[in-house]
Amino acid sequence: xxxxxxxxxxxxxxxxxxxxxxxxxxxxxxxxxxxxxxxxxxxxxxxxxxxxxxxxxxxxxxxxxxxxxxxxxxxxxxxxxxxxxxxxxxxxxxxxxxxxxxxxxxxxxxxxxxxxxxxxxxxxxxxxxxxxxxxxxxxxxxxxxxxxxxxxxxxxxxxxxxxxxxxxxxxxxxxxxxxxxxxxxxxxxxxxxxxxxxxxxxxxxxxxxxxxxxxxxxxxxxxxxxxxxxxxxxxxxxxxxxxxxxxxxxxxxxxxxxxxxxxxxxxxxxxxxxxxxxxxxxxxxxxxxxxxxxxxxxxxxxxxxxxxxxxxxxxxxxxxxxxxxxxxxxxxxxxxxxxxxxxxxxxxxxxxxxxxxxxxxxxxxxxxxxxxxxxxxxxxxxxxxxxxxxxxxxxxxxxxxxxxxxxxxxxxxxxxxxxxxxxxxxxxxxxxxxxxxxxxxxxxxxxxxxxxxxxxxxxxxxxxxxxxxxxxxxxxxxxxxxxxxxxxxxx
Amino acid sequence: xxxxxxxxxxxxxxxxxxxxxxxxxxxxxxxxxxxxxxxxxxxxxxxxxxxxxxxxxxxxxxxxxxxxxxxxxxxxxxxxxxxxxxxxxxxxxxxxxxxxxxxxxxxxxxxxxxxxxxxxxxxxxxxxxxxxxxxxxxxxxxxxxxxxxxxxxxxxxxxxxxxxxxxxx
Lengths: 491, 169
What we know:
The complex is a heterodimer of chains A (491) and B (169). By secondary structure, chain A is an alpha/beta fold.
C-alpha cells in the first residue's frame, strides 16, 4: 500500500487540532494558494494537496479512519517532531544547464514534548591525566568533574575513567548514590605518562555498557590536551561502533596541542559535540553546558533521508546548530544526531538540479526519522515532498528569504576556512594565504573584527614562515563555525 | 554559468555566494553607498519643530494604512506592526531592510543600507532618517537625522536620489 501523505503537515495543523482549527487552517491556506489569487504559478499543485488533505481531515469519519491507518502503519498521530523546509526560491527557471537550489530546514521537538521531566543519564567521563595536564589543567578538570557529580541526581549513572598511556577506572559506572566517595576518588587522580586516547575510549565505553538501556541517554565525555600516538584510525572505528550502540561521544580539547581533526570527527561520527577550550577556566562552564544539553535531549538518532529524483543531487549539507559543521552522510541519509527540546536542529542543503521542463516537478522525497526515548518510541517517521514549479520566464536572479541568506553568508565563511586548510594540506601556501586574507575581508564586512584579526595574523605568519600557529588555526576554525551563534543586529 | 563580479570564478545559476571570495553574487558583494554631489540633492531643510508638535498631537483615531510607491510603480504596504526600515539589502553584512530599494536603483541612487524608518504612533505615521549618507527628503526638504517627521497623504519622499510617493489611507 502506498504511504499516505501527512495531511496534518499539509494543512500546517497539529494532529490533535479541533475540527474548527482544521477548517480555519484550510480556508486560510486555500485562499493563499488558490491559483486565481496568486499571480505566480506553482500554486496549483499545492492547492490540490490542500484540497486532498481537507477532504479527509474535514470529515470526522474519514479523519478517524486516517488516524487509525497512520497509527497502524507505526506512525503515531501525535506531533512527534516539528519540521519545516524553506527553499531559497519558490519557482525555478527552466534552464538548459544545472542550477543550484538551497533548502534551509528546522526540526524541533513536537508540541507534546514534556520539558519538565528529564530522562536518566548514563554518562562516563574520560579524563586525560598525562604529564602535560599537570597543574592548572588537571586541577580545573578535577574541580569540574566534582561539580558534575554534584549536579547529577540519584537516577543518573556515572562512571569516571582516567587515562595516560593506559586507562584505569576511577569510579565504576553506577547509580550516583554516594557522591562524596566519588568526589574523593576524583581528588586522588595524579598526572603522569603519555596520551593514548584509544585506551581511554575503550575503557569508558565498557563502563557505559554496564548500565546502557535502550531508552537512556548514553554519553561519553572525553577531555584531553594532547595528540594521541598512532591510534587515530582505531579511535574513529570505535566512535562509529559507539554510535551503533546508541552511545554519543563529546570531546573537549584543552589548550592548543590536541588533534582538532580527530576530536571533531569522533564527535560528529557519534552524534556528540566537540569543543575548543582555550583557557582552563572554561572547563567547568563547558562541562556544565554539555550536561544541560544531554539533560534536554528529546529525540535521538535523527536522520533525514532524501530520495532524489533523476538529475538532482546534494552538493553540500551543513548543520547550523550548535555550530556549523558538515553533516555526516550514509548514502542518501543525513545523520543529524540528537535533538534537544530547547534547541531545534537547523541545517542547509545545497542541491544541484539538472534541466527540467516547465511545470511541477518533485525533486526529492524527504523522510525524517528518529527515536524519542522519553516516549519509548523508536523510528517515528515524517515525510515531505520537495516539489517545485519550473517556469520558462522565471527570473534567474531572485533574492532568497533573509533567513536563508544570513545562514548562507556564514556557511560561506566556514567553507572559505575549510578551503584554506585544504590548500595548506596540499602544500599550496600562497593559495592558503590568499584565502585567509579574503576571508578576513569578509569578516570585517560582517563586523567580526576579532576573528578578522586572527585570520590576518595567521595569513601574515603563513606568508612569512609557511606555517600556522596551532592556536591561530583553532581560533579561526572554532570561531568561524560559531558565527551563527553571534547575535546579529537585524533580527 | 554565472561569473563572480569580484573574482571571476564561475558558478552554476542559482548560486548565491561565491565560494572563493565570499561575495554575494546578486549584487557583487558589499558595495558602498557613494555620496552624491550636493547639486543633485535639494538644499532646503525641514523645520525640526514640526516633529515635536506632531508627536504631541498624535491621537488615537481609526486605523490607517500606508502604502508607499517607488518609481517602478509597485505598491509596497508596510508590515502589520506599522514599522519598516527602508534601505538596501546587503546579505554579506546581514542587513535585511523590510523594504529593499535595490530593485529601484537604490545603489546608484545613493540609498544607504539602513536609510530611513517609517513607524506609527497612535494613528500618525512618521518618517525618520537613520543617519544616511545622502539624506532623506520630505517634500523637497532635508530631514534632520534621527528626528521623526509626520507623514501625510500624497507626501513625496526622496531617499538619496530615489523618489517615493506616500499614500495614507
